Structures are given as C-alpha cells and as structure tokens.
Amino acid sequence: MAKEKTLFFCKDCGYEMSKWQGQCPGCHAWNTLVEAPAGGRGKRTASTSGRRNTAAGASAPTKINEIETQEECRHETGIKELDRVLGGGIVPGSLILVGGDPGIGKSTLLLQTCQLLAAKERKVLYVSGEESARQIKMRAERIGTFTDSLYLYSETCMGTILDAVEELSPEVMIVDSIQTVFDENIDAAPGSVSQVREITGTLLHLAKSKNITIFIVGHVTKEGNVAGPRMLEHMVDTVLYFEGDKTAMYRMLRGVKNRFGSTNEVGVFEMRGRGLAEVPNPSEYMMQGRLENESGSVVVCTMEGSRPFLIEVQALVCQTSFPMPRRTAVGTDYNRVNLLMAVLEKRLGIRLGDCDAYVNVAGGMRVVEPALDLALVAALFSSHHGRVLGSGTVLFGEVGLVGEVRAVSQAERRVAEAVKTGYDTCILPESNKRSILQAGNLDVSGMKLIGVKHIRELLEYFA
Q1: Gap between the terminal Cα atoms of the chain
Q2: Strand pairing partners for 127?
Q3: Which residues are registered as beta bridge partners of 300?
Q4: pLDDT, tens digit (0-9, with 9 covering 90-100), for 252-304
Q5: CB 415 within 8 A of CB 308
Q6: What's the CA gap between 248 and 257, in Å, rounded?
C-alpha cells in the first residue's frame, strides 16, 4: 500500500512545503510547521478547478477606466460600536473573521448581533459546532427575546451546512467556530490546517456567489492553535479581534483588516449579566477611579484609528533592593520605557540606574503609539521626584533620543477630546500648537495650550 502523501503547513501564515524546516520561509517564525495529509486536497481538485473556471469564464480583463464604481451598500447591525469597527455596518457578500481567546465574548456579541438583525426581519442562520441548539437557546434567553427570523443549526459537516444554506437562503450566517467544522472529503481532523483552509475557501465562495454576509469565529490561545485565525487573515475581507481579560468587565473589539473601511478602529464593550453593553464614551470610563494630585499619574490622549481616548498613565519609581533594577511595563512597550528612562538620565541628569520602575496604562488597553512618550516621561519624573501635574492637565507628544518633543498626528482631535471631557490645560509639541492655532478650526478659548520643544521645558509645570 502506497504511503499517504503529507505536506507541512505554517500555523501562523499558512505557507506550505514538502519537507519540515525549523523556520518558516514565509513569515520566518520558528517551530510553527505542522504536518497534515495532502491527499484530501487532491480529491477536491476537480470541483475546485471547475468552480474557478466558471468564475473565470464569466469575466474578462477590463480597462480600469471602463469599470464603474459605486458605494458599498451597508446594513447596520444595531450595535453602534460594532458598526464603527466595521466601517458603518456589514457589507453583503463579505466574509468576516472574529478572533479572540476562548470565553472572551465572541459568541455573545454575535448572538446579540443576530438578535438585532432578526428584529429587522433579516433571515439569519447561526451554525454552531460547539454547542447544541438547546444550549444556545438557554444563552439567548439571558440576552433577550428573539424573532422567528433567526435559525439555529448545530452541525459540523460542511456538506450538510451547504444544504441548509440552499434551503433557507439566509442574508447573514454565523459559523461558530471554524475549528469545529470539517469537510468529509479532506483526510484530516477538524481544526487542522487542511480542514480550516478548505472550509474557509468554501465559505468565501459561498459568500460571494450567494451575496451572504458570513461571520466565522476563530479561537486564539497563548500556545497557538494548529490552524489559528492568523493563517486566514489574507482570505477574509475583514478581521476583528476581541481583546481583554475575560475575568474583567471591559472588552475591546479591534479591526485589524477591513477591505470596506478603515483599520485599527476600536469598539468598547462592558460585560454584564445580560450580555455585552456598549460604552459610548470610553474616555469617561477609562478615567473612573483616578486619584487627583498624586505623583506618578498623568493623563494622555491617544488615538485608536480615528477615535481619541483619554487614558491614565501611572509610574512607580523607587530605590531598588536588588542587584539589578526591576523594570515592568503593562499596556505599553517595555523597550520603549527603557529607552525613555535612558533619555531622562542623559538629557536631564536624573539618576535612574539604581531604581526599580513600574509603568502601567490603566483601563486594560495596550498603547504603542509614539504620542505616549511625553506622558511616560512625565509619569516617571513625577514619581521619582514626588511632584504632580495639575488635575486638569492632559498631554501628548513623541520624544526623541536628544530629548526633543516631536509632533504627532491628529493633534486637533486630541485637543477637542480633552476640551469635551472638561480638561483646561494641554501640554503638546510646539509645532502641533502652532498648526492648531493657525488652522482656527477648533475653539480653544477654554483650553490653555502649552507648547514644548524639549522635555526640560516640561519640568516647570510640575507643582
């Protein structure tokens, strides 16, 4: 009996090869190659190639100037935070991947979306390979009432699911989760690279041919799944990641890819007993519990996509009792904190080499944009010297290696968010201050703008 042919796939990027290697040639990650049967892929060659030939025969190369464009038709889901991340609503015929850790709230968010879409008399099919229809019904009763436009289907066989789609012709379809669905023509276990890639390809063809909006759920674990969602990102139209600690109340829905809208948009949700609730003003809830006039605490305005957030940055600097100082950064880049501490030592003569330093971005968000630099410098200096900024002060700006404060993008929107939230003083790069005043688009009569060119100018504003 001939030996079954196998291929090796990268579980991060999906690159395939005939022999195992320690490093993936595609994404250069180490120890990410897994073995999977290749025989099943050959069994579908005829049908797959036929599908492609049919699609190819229906079109021909066209001059770009002869192609007519039109604005994408969107349907609002009824959840404003989700619509924001999607770019204004769902686009018919799109394939959307929703990823996140198990238990983070992906199924709850999609079930709430189904509830609102069904209430608008849109036919929705919810396919679950992890829960029975009875279990989904019990969870749905905690969320609220549903109409008869929502159909539940507990099934894992792709062929049977396609038959149900042909019969119902839904407008929206949920597949929860992609790792549980299998194709009986593929000689591999459910959740393997071969199965997930083939199932996703089938769903993509289904979405485009039937004009159905399809959400697929993918789990992400710290260890990394054999067929994790990252391998599918290039195949789908939109990628959403649900972030946050599942033991905490708040969740962040982040768009990392969107062919129909902007990327890096963020939606904020709060986990409650009846499901996920939207947080319309994230800046307000991020600042809850903040103590005023405490050293080591400053407020920064950061941007997530086109949305400004006011966030508290905390720092604790103290003499170390260890041979080597300890440095910890939560919610920001650890190496960036070390770099800014070196700038403080070199440019301001502040001795930090014998101090422990702990930095925390309150609220559970992770911020890596350069505009956080000035707030980190201010928080470290404030904690080390026991001096505080005024309670109504917000700041932002990028700090270079010589201590200069550089301009950042969307400064006007950051200042507008600070004005709306009630802050009266904003410390920002001098170049950003000039551009805001010259443009004259923003009413800053109630806001004191303080432009700084170097971090040493920042010190005189500490009490």
Answers
A1: 83
A2: 153, 175
A3: 311, 395
A4: 898 889 998 877 788 989 888 888 999 888 888 888 888 888 999 999 999 98
A5: no
A6: 26
